[in-house]
Amino acid sequence: MAYDDSKLAALADFGQSVWLDFISRDLLRSGGLAERVARGVSGMTTNPTIFQKAIDQGDAYDDEIRQLAERGRSADEIADALIVSDVREACGLLRPVFDRTAHRDGYVSIEVSPEVAYDTRASLREARRLHDAVGRPNVMVKIPGTPAGIAAIRQAVAAGLNVNITLLFAVDVYDKVIDAFQSGLEDRVARGEPIDDVHSVASFFVSRIDGKADRLVDERLAGEADAAVRERLEGLRGSLALTNARLAYRHFTESLASGRWHRLAERGAHAQRLLWASTSTKDPRYDDLLYVDNLIGRQTVDTMPEETLDAFLDHGVVRRTLGRDVGDEDRDRVEQAARLGIDLAAITDELQAEGVRLFTDSFEGLRDTIERKRAGLLAGEERRLSA
User: Is 335 within the bounds of a domain?
Assistant: First the structure.
């Protein structure tokens, strides 16, 4: 691939930041992340799935796992130590971006355990613990947008934590997230505390919606004989994810036009930017940058896996595709889909529940991977000492 580094600078001119949706010890210590940052990457997101893959592949973490195991640390304690260590190191590499952008970018996200996704108190407690454990000003704690998580978000923002609200699929849930963020800022104002250095993003997941919607379209087509209905169903394929994202962006811009936000902005508040997550294309029938090229707009972030970022640098098209008028036709598309038996609200509800389950599975997989490595490394050390 022929990389055009100027594309990231051009995206920045359009008001969009690019973060990397990946982390590994090799990436941090080989200079790979530093190279990405030099090209224009301005942040990083992580999750249990990413860490599970990073630790499971190769031996980059083995020495530290062995040392912690010899100190009697459990698999959970080792996993926590490795994640915090990597995030802290990444924060250091991104600190120059954090300083240069006046704290707008340069963040590294670390996720609370999905096991507390439905417990407000536990989510807030875990968010505080992770923030303090990393101990860097550019750490951003990820809290899922479940009902319990949304309550924790308000309290975390009120406490002055930088928060990334993750696993957002539904626009009505996103509206509650906007309210929680602004309420947290208002709580700080009521206590006479500053709000000019509290930053947040709302991670809106994109491609998974088409994956589930397209399967429903296929099911409807299998039993539909009417040619006109079939044509309308076919027209929905590969479209609802972008429709949903554009509606979310419309709600974002409308929230910034409210008197409530203007009062906060006058006190120095920074907008909670929309972050596009899950922007890699899963269906090979679609353009590999379908969810990247079509979601470029002001005050947004796109977090991309390495392969998607490389593809964008090779053949991405930089042009503003989100504006104030976005969403005018999308409500009609959602209504048409509902008439055809494709209920977007039901899809997004299912995806959020599935998202929590998937991250829980990854967290358990991470624990199992470390336990396996822990046991193997300890056994190997015992054999070496007894030889």
Answer: yes
201-229 pLDDT, tens digit per residue, is 999 999 999 999 999 999 999 999 999 99
Range of the domain at 235: 6-380
Q: Which of 1-5, 77-81, 293-297 has the lowest mean pLDDT?
A: 1-5
Go through 147-157 and write b for each residue having 16 or more CB atoms within 10 A of its CB, e for each that does not.
ebbbbbbbbbb
- Of 7, 53, 142, 176, the catalytic one is 142
Is the confidence at residue 383, as pLDDT, over 70?
A: no
Domain-located, residue 385 = no
Contact partners, residue 269, CB within 8 Å, separation at least 6: 185, 195, 196, 198, 261
Active site includes 142? Answer: yes
If you search the block for the tokens 């120095």, which residue do you land on? 268
Report which of 281, 145, 146 is spatially closest to residue 206, judged by C-alpha positions: 281
Report which residue type is found at 337: A
User: How distant, in Å, are the alpha carbons of 54, 110, 150, 275, 342 from that of 164?
Assistant: 22, 9, 11, 9, 30
Backbone dihedral angles phi then psi of residue 101, each to the nearest 5 degrees: -95, 15
Tens digits of per-residue pLDDT, 145-156? 999 999 999 999
Q: If DSSP codes are grouped into helix, strand and coil, which group holds residue 320? A: coil
